[in-house]
Request: fold
Amino acid sequence: MTDPLKILYHYWGYTAFRPLQDDIIHAVLNGKDTLALLPTGGGKSICFQVPALAKEGVCIVVSPLIALMKDQVFQLNERGIKAKAIYTGLSQREIDIILDNAIYGDIKFLYVSPERLKTEIFIARVTRMKIGLLAIDEAHCISQWGYDFRPPYLEIATFRKLIPEVTCIALTATATKEVKKDIQDKLLFNQSAALFQKSFARANLSYSTFYEENKEARLLRILNRVQGSAVVYVRSRKKTKNIADFLIRNRISATFYHAGLSNALREERQEKWIKNRVRVIVATNAFGMGIDKPDVRLVVHIDLPDNLEAYYQEAGRAGRDEKKAYAVMLYNKADVDQLKTNIEVSYPSPAVLKKTYQALANYLKIAAGSGYMESYEFDLDAFVQVFNLPYLLTYHALKKLEEQGLIQFNESFYAPSKLMIKVKHDELYQYQVANKQADILIKVLLRVYGGEIFNHFINVNENKIAGVLKKPAVFIKRQLEELQNAGIIDYQPIKDKPCIVMLTERAMVEKLSLNIRLLEERKKAYADKVNAVISYIENKVTCQTALLLKYFDEHTKEKCGICGNCTRNINRTKNHNDFIDKILIELRKSPKSPEQLLNLWSVSQKDVVVQAIEVLLDNKEIVYTQNGKLELV
Reply:
């Protein structure tokens, strides 16, 4: 099947492409290196999956996020398309099998993390593969001007030289003018390269920013006005629970989500929210990647994001069904001050980085010259306690060591239990005859998981097996370990803890190579992004959609008419002037509570009075005092 439209219908059931998808696919099929910028939920994956299916050979997909890789592999397999992923936590044996199948088997999509591209085993196998397409997901990660720079992405240029005839498509949801150019340069795009960018405008999405001291009360009012499914983003794990508990106490169905929860709990809560069994999910930015829920009506940021790229992606999870939706950001002076402080906290000194690296090597017991591409379970809380380190500074130091290409820090790593039978059928049969207790378990494994278990690692669920055998799960795990020790199976128990991957051999700290210039340039880029967020929230005049578009180098004089600034300016001239004047007169006399101000008007006018107060708060003409009253600035 080589016709893109037939492929789309056969595997996805769609009869037509979305805007730009068809153009992107044909550019790729015509051999043009292609950069595609499509907003969150814009159907980026189809842009490389369809042309890959139309071409011969394997499509290698480079992606930085394990969760995203797993999700796409699952979705492809569900559609009958063979896909596999190589990521942190797989054993050498598993990687061998996957690479062999990519050469000799029928794997169509091979997902890899960028760190894998420079490993000897991968390079050796790639030269024997027939590769039809190279796809780079989250391509902004290759640019040091991007908000999520990953040094291993720079290895892609070297990797491309191994497959010079293979077309490359790079995809991202957000990129500034600088980042777009950097992506194309770093990926060595050919002269005929194509660039496709869908407008960042979302006609159905209303953006608003509100200055607010009492954020919880404001959140409650917003949720009572805007019905439907909602996401509330906060910066700390502790706050996810606090806000969710507050909403529950106020009779709003809510749950919380962050990377510190077990995988089972994250999946359970995510599933409840997706199926509308819970209305609001309060989460850190660990939530949302790969989530396809079209009917989200509201996304609220209670804490300020530190860049507009992340904000645009997170806010963009609202209204994918093209119906009216709202993206709201709440902030106050303390938030702005904290954002500015974060510039220093987020970029620890080289001395702190070296101290953290040394402590990490000691904690993980990695000898000098060893550890390359090894994965280690890692508990940040325990780590900082053992070495008496400041939590936040250490967290950012680990992130900077990641930016330096020295480690990979996965905060929410999960790998299910998996196993493969290592022996041939006749040897397995002899073992079953000699070991009756093991015979029952082996028969269940073969019945539940089939013949594939001889050739591939299969994800297994000990609880499911325990249910079939009516035995405790701990008994099943012990039996599987015995089969492993006997050499019958290769069994790898579940992993559900954060992990550190060493991307280079462990160096002696005095010889640790740090790119100081990169640290300084990244710090400046981060500061610029923080200042762009502050400029965005403090602008109470310009259309907020237009402000976001301008940031992404898309200029328009049109006003969206539905954002906070547009409606505020319309409402102020039409409805609020008389109310605003009277409120200001009253507050000149003395500070008053909102309730005292509301009592000056009739019940039928109270909604407009509340809106007038909000206008004045947003414009910073009035503020809350410490005792909850309003006063003039």
